[in-house]
Structure to design on (741 residues):
């Protein structure tokens, strides 16, 4: 009987050892030596190479090391919110400011950066004030701008336009005309990653702004749901419908995605003429199709709409991205040093080189060093001149609203919802 | 083996004898499994039940909400639709996969040339993760750069993910592509276990291959069919990864099945209370279905099909 204990003991210890290993995996990266390290979590896309470069620069001189983690685009917000109140939470993380960090502030998870700014006023004074204020919640600063400002623009394939005798559309009628011409030539007029849903939303954001001005959305966000049922709202929807019915987006846009490169390739390979996308589109094309990005990619601001109340120079998009810091981090001092790099010349130049437009006050000095100086200047002027910069609706609304909003946006494009149905769906969204 | 040293054989025998002395396995044998079941199934289930009566965004502490989540669920047309979609996808899965896997399984049980190689190739999808398979098919079915762009006569404009019928079709097809090999394997094993005497007797009686298939193979596979179908039903009701990657419940909410809707509520809208309520509904429905299946099929008092041989 005595011998039977041996295999059991072995089996038992194996199980125990396995369990411990697993537990160790979950334990994460508590500091092993005196110097330690903090994690920086960013949205995974083509801009990551700049973040990597900045982290490397920081690690060259700092004793406390920064570790970069990325989460692929579509899942970023989901994963962030799931892990931010756990042990695995990052010390510093990428966000869109405003509505995207408000719940974290409310839950008391974020570190107000005002003390850091008091020690180094440069953390505030080196950024454009309107942008810096995008991450101020209840009078306290919770984010330092990183990456660049991301206005949404109408990109085009220059060759396709030239071949069909077209130019970048200045007015809504130009756009409708281009759609007609291109459709006759069997080119998809406008590439749309409808499968992702948020690219479709951009068309609403611009249409509502051009027709009604930024006030309508502000009113709706403020809780006055009748705004969605106003004459302007219906007019904007009617215009959108006109464009969809004209065949501007082809018929299979719901099976196309931006995030897997589908719509990007359509434009690069001259199968589509236009795509409405944020300014990061340039760096995406540069990564996927470098030759096309260099010579074939055109861009313009969203066309003006006759009779609309909105200022034709208004823009929509992401005001900026920000780094926010978790309250429980042990490395606040080192992080303050890390954040300083977000206004360094190296940072500005590196972003310029991949087509992003940082919002430091020094940006204007480097416009000439950009990958495509004209593109940088165009964006800079666009942002500078815009009386209103509408934050993407799905970022402005609380996260709880975004699924229902995306569904409604897609269903109206598909014809599954009519204007009444869309209005009802938007009115049902929670605003706080 | 038996030629090896005598003492070892002796010892093995003694071990077996002392094992037999324990008679019926006691509770101690079930303890590890019971412990894991409690820890990873019962405890989370209780937590989910509690959460379904709260409002929780995953950040602050949960707030008691009474029956709010449940009331909302009853009036939620997406939830009701999602249940029907789950059932539809499950039924379609069973209807498509069962005949395919029976035919393939019976074929694979034979002794034809190249059978082993072909079977081995055919089992490959089984080894891939559902996520990898979904990403693969998503790329293959891209309307502009995938198969549909080359076969317009079949796919039209290729808007497979833009209509409810075609999106469900894709889900069922990818599910079948992935799981048919597994069920084929089950049927192959079961077919090989059919006593050859039966076929020999049938041959003497003059029954051809087709008659043999319907009169011997199929009846002999009855219990296997039930096993396989239960697995298909369970798999169909818990379909998630294919939906997440292929359609994301779209277009609109046209392929939002219950398991995906639960995920969407909890992890995309951060309404963990509402998500938990959906999860509980799923648990209850799955339990009822499995009880029905067990009753109807006689799975609980199933007898051997080779009885009397």
């Amino acid at each position: 009987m005595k011998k039977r204990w041996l295999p059991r003991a072995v089996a038992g210890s194996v199980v125990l050892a396995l369990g411990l290993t697993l537990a160790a995996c979950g334990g994460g990266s508590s500091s092993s030596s005196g110097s330690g390290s903090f994690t920086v979590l960013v949205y995974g896309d083509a801009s990551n190479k700049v973040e990597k470069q900045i982290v490397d620069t920081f690690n060259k001189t700092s004793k406390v090391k920064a570790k970069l983690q990325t989460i692929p685009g579509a899942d970023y917000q989901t994963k962030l919110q799931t892990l931010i109140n756990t042990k695995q939470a990052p010390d510093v993380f990428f966000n869109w400011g405003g509505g995207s960090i408000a719940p974290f502030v409310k839950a008391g998870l974020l570190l107000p950066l005002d003390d850091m700014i008091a020690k180094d006023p440069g953390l505030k004074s080196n950024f454009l004030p309107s942008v810096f204020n995008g991450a101020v919640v209840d009078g306290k600063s919770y984010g330092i701008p990183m990456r660049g400002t991301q206005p949404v623009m109408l990109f085009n394939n220059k060759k396709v336009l030239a071949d069909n005798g077209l130019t970048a559309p200045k007015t809504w009628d130009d756009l409708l005309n281009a759609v007609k011409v291109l459709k006759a030539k069997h080119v998809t007029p406008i590439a749309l990653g409808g499968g992702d849903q948020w690219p479709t939303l951009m068309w609403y954001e611009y249409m509502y702004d051009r027709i009604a001005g930024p006030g309508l959305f502000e009113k709706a966000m403020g809780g006055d749901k009748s705004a969605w049922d106003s004459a302007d709202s219906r007019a904007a929807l009617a215009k959108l419908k006109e464009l969809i019915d004209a065949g501007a987006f082809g018929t299979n846009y719901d099976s196309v995605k931006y995030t897997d490169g589908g719509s990007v390739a359509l434009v690069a390979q001259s199968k589509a003429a236009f795509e409405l996308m944020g300014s990061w589109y340039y760096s995406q094309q540069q990564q996927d199709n470098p030759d096309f990005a260099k010579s074939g990619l055109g861009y313009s601001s969203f066309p003006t709409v006759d009779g609309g109340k909105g200022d034709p120079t208004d823009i929509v998009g992401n005001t900026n991205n920000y780094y926010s810091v978790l309250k429980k981090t042990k490395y606040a001092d080192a992080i303050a040093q890390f954040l300083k790099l977000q206004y360094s010349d190296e940072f500005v130049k590196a972003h310029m080189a991949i087509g992003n437009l940082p919002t430091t006050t020094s940006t204007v000095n480097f416009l000439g060093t950009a990958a495509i100086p004209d593109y940088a200047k165009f964006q800079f002027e666009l942002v500078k001149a815009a009386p209103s910069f509408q934050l993407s609706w799905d970022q402005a609304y609380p996260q709880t609203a975004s699924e229902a909003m995306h569904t409604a946006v897609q269903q109206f494009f598909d014809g599954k919802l009519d204007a009444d149905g869309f209005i009802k769906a938007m009115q049902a969204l929670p605003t706080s | 083996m038996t030629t090896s040293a005598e003492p070892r054989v002796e010892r093995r025998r003694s071990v077996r004898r002392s094992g037999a002395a324990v008679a019926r396995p006691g509770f101690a044998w079930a303890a590890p499994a019971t412990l894991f079941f409690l820890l990873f199934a019962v405890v989370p289930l209780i937590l989910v039940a509690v959460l379904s009566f709260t409002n929780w965004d995953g950040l602050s502490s949960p707030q008691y909400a009474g029956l709010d989540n449940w009331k909302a669920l009853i009036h939620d047309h997406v939830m009701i639709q999602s249940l029907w979609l789950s059932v539809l996808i499950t039924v379609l899965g069973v209807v498509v996969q069962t005949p395919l896997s029976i035919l393939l399984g019976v074929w694979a049980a034979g002794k034809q040339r190249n059978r082993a190689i072909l079977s081995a190739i055919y089992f490959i999808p089984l080894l891939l993760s559902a996520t990898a398979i979904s990403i693969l098919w998503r790329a293959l079915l891209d309307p502009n750069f995938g198969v549909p762009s080359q076969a317009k006569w079949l796919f039209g404009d290729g808007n497979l993910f833009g209509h409810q019928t075609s999106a469900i079709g894709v889900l069922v097809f990818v599910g079948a592509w992935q799981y048919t090999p597994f069920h084929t394997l089950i049927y192959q094993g079961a077919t090989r276990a059919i006593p050859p005497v039966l076929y020999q007797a049938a041959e003497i009686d003059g029954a051809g291959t087709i008659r043999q298939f319907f009169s011997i193979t199929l009846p002999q596979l009855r219990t296997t069919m039930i096993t396989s179908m239960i697995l298909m039903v369970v798999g169909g009701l818990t379909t998630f990864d294919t939906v997440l990657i292929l359609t994301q419940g779209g277009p609109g909410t046209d392929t939002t099945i219950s398991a995906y809707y639960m995920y969407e509520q909890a992890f995309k809208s951060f309404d963990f209370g509402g998500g938990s309520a959906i999860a509980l509904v799923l648990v209850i429905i799955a339990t009822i279905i499995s009880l029905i299946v067990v009753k109807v099929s006689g799975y609980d008092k199933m007898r051997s099909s080779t009885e009397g041989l």
